[in-house]
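lol ok so funny story. i was supposed to be doing the assay writeup but got distracted and ended up predicting the structure for this chain instead. priorities right. anyway since i did it might as well share w the group, maybe its usefull for someone
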Amino acid sequence: MLGPVILAASRSDKMRRFVSAAPGTKQVVDRFIAGETVDQVVPIVRDAADKGLEVTLDVVGEDITTVEQSYAARDAYLELVGRLKELGLGTRAEMSVKLSMFGQALEGGHELALANVRPVVEAAAAIGTTVTLDAEDHTTLDSMFAIHEELRKDFPETGCVIQAYLFRTEDDARRLAAAGSRVRIVKGAYKEPASVAYQDKAEVDKAFVRIVKILMAGEGYPMIGSHDPRLITISQELARQAGRKLDEYEFQMLYGIRSDEHVRLAAEGHRMRVYTAYGTDWYGYFMRRLAEKPANLLFFGRSILTKG
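and the output, tada:
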């Protein structure tokens, strides 16, 4: 039951200051955050490529409050695209973006986020890669899906994320499982009310399986975002039943979690993509990682005690 408490803390400035100042924080943050700058992330992309892995890169920092910050977020991604182009890594790395970082929650935010994300998607396409729009809390999804639909008119490979714990997601999956679509399915990592989301883990897992089945049976490209060995095995079986080849879907896992499994799946011929976050504004992302798995919180607690 600690998950909801941690998710609530992810929105607290007081907790942000406490966690940031804790002596063991950096050790744990470094496990989940690949670095603070593009130059620190580049070797990780190269190493992943050498191991037969692909990556999706996320510049962390969704809690913005000004239009100027939204422009800075846009420019950070454009810098990333430029570095990938210089190094010839465009085809090995895509990007994941949170529209809140591009100004979605500000006044006129829908139009602002679309205007900011479009040049990033365009630049990504120019170097042979693409962008996936991350899902956030349920109040933002209609805007996210509308922006996704608009971007796909010119950039059809633009992906989006759906979350198994939301009641609406099975219907969203049916709508999105069309030819050419790219859809990442995850369990969900935001604090959502019982009126819109399953609260029981077993129910979330069941929904995840139902949604994977919908996506595998569709004409799009499913991206399975999970570290759960059982759900990975079930997804492999659903892909087999749907007659999908190994290059017609992929698995995605977070940087710093089950790295041996990343390599194992790639060695078996699966497309395996590592979700790799970097940047200085890591707090919200970090807290969601703690909330997802008790072992992550235990690791953090031990680090604080060790360093304290």
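The CA atoms of residues 64 and 101 lie 6 Å apart. The longest helix spans residues 67-87.
back to the writeup now i swear
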